[in-house]
TrEMBL record, chains A, B:
InterPro entries: Bact_HTH_transcr_reg, Chorismate_lyase_/UTRA_dom_sf, Tscrpt_reg_HTH_GntR, UTRA, WH-like_DNA-bd_sf, WH_DNA-bd_sf. It comes from Sphaerisporangium album. This is GntR family transcriptional regulator. SMART domains: HTH_GNTR (SM00345), UTRA (SM00866). One of its GO terms (biological process) is negative regulation of DNA-templated transcription.
Length: 250, 250
């Protein structure tokens, strides 16, 4: 155990990766650009091929670069979307707070497609959370700047929302939460469960994920006063496109 | 767009995966057991090889199973650790709330090793958040049931904590937050930023991750009253071992 002050120098491959990442963030390389290859890095830094490969692997692992077979490594840069779990407590109130990851806080327009609305039998886990056998589900895909970034499936207890605008495409002003409010079941509390895993082939196709990009799965339960679960939204998120932010007091 | 009630039946490979997962969760297959192979699934369900492969791929993607070359697919079952971002609002107050993912809420003992404590130059992102050029950092690895599950590196502004127990292995009762309190900088607010990505080779080795398992990166900033950032903890988490839970009010 080293408990005395020592300087900490990251290994060379990591410093090269840091420099390339900074160049990407600074706009010197843009989305779709080819990065310097192994040969170029070897001669520029006087390093072995394995080291050059390691440096590029760091960026590939982070999802900021994508290898194309026989052609090199290309920038996949997308300013990540910052998703606030709890706006009420969010960073605006913490003036000096600076974020680890650069991202857009302000509104980038989403487009929505692949909308499917249906009444169906609840999957086992959904039925357990919502306490019902049938659900109305609203499925859709979100894209930003033409890039699919999220698949979402909101589930509602079928008998609770049957015959309401929650079962049709246009839910009206304020959306589904306003409609739950009309029914006397406005959400007052949310729980989000977050996991990460590799995507299924179907998810990878719908989100157009390059090989090796994981997804974040967010399951958001909404509870009305008294603790009744009124919605379960399962979100599958391109991990390279998002930063999730949660704020809370001690 | 289908907006009329239609029954929703998942594809056959997914139903087989669901059945195998339930058998794992029910303890019929245990950690390290070999799952039925493609041939066994083909004859049991009367399906094509590609379908059997898809079913097993679902479990591999979820991190519940691991392929071993030429030998089959094996259970990698680990009851995930539920990590509460904000205890104060947590599910205990939401009596009827049921979780999507089965996991241990109660205390499973962590063991800690690979402890390194050092004063060092702040990495660019760390320095920006903490507003300093040098930090004291406390690095360690957490394991549960003998399995490494998390690498953590807590950073503190060097001049703030120099000469305090935060710079030595035993920080005393209440740990680093109590010591920050002694200094008049008790954390009152936390921000967590969450991302997922593939691990670096070094992270994969330290967490003993099988190929294809992503990590979740949690960057937790602690703020004292007035908004001063007093700690930045970078956690690298085995995605197959954790569910992160966040609770907040509407």
């Amino acid at each position: 155990m080293a408990s005395s002050p020592v300087p900490h120098e990251p290994p060379i491959y990591r410093r090269i990766a840091d420099r390339l990442r900074q160049a990407i963030l600074a706009g010197e390389f843009r989305d779709g650009d080819r990065l310097p290859g192994e040969n170029a890095l070897m001669s520029e830094y006087g390093i072995a091929r394995a080291t050059a490969r390691q440096a590029l692997a760091v960026l590939i692992n982070e999802g900021v670069a994508v290898p194309k077979r026989g052609s090199g490594v290309y920038v996949r840069h997308f300013r990540p979307i910052r998703r606030h779990g709890s706006r009420r407590l969010s960073r605006e109130q913490w003036g000096t707070g600076k974020a680890i990851w650069d991202s857009d806080v302000t509104g980038r327009p989403f487009t929505v497609d692949d909308i499917v609305i249906a009444r169906e039998a609840a999957a086992e886990d959904v039925g357990r959370v919502l306490g019902c056998g049938e659900v109305w589900v609203r499925r859709r895909r979100y894209s930003v700047d033409g890039r699919p970034v999220q698949l979402a499936a909101s589930h509602f207890p079928a008998d609770l929302v049957e015959g309401t605008p929650i079962t049709v495409p246009d839910t009206g002003p304020g959306g589904v939460y306003a409609r739950l409010g009309d029914l006397g079941h406005a959400p007052v509390h949310f729980t989000e469960e977050v996991r990460a895993r590799m995507p299924s082939p179907d998810e990878a196709a719908k989100l157009r994920l390059p090989a090796g990009t994981p997804v974040i799965e967010v399951c958001r339960s909404a509870f009305a006063a008294g603790g009744t679960a009124v919605e379960l939204n399962k979100m599958i998120i391109d991990a390279a496109s998002y930063v999730l932010q949660y704020d809370f007091d001690a």
